[in-house]
Amino acid sequence: MKQAIAVLAHKNFCHLEKLLKSFDENFLFYIHIDSASDFTRSEIETIRAYRNVAYVSTKTNINWGSSLIVKNILMLIAEILKDKTIQYAHLISGQDFLIKSSSEITQYLTNNKGKEFIIYFSLPSDVWTEGGLNRIRYYYLFDLLKARTGVLRKLNNFLVWVQKGLGVNRKFLPNGLKIYGGRMWWTLSYGCLEFIKNFVDDNPELLKSFKHTFCSDEIMFPTIL
Question: What three-state secondary structure class fits 29?
Answer without folding.
Answer: strand
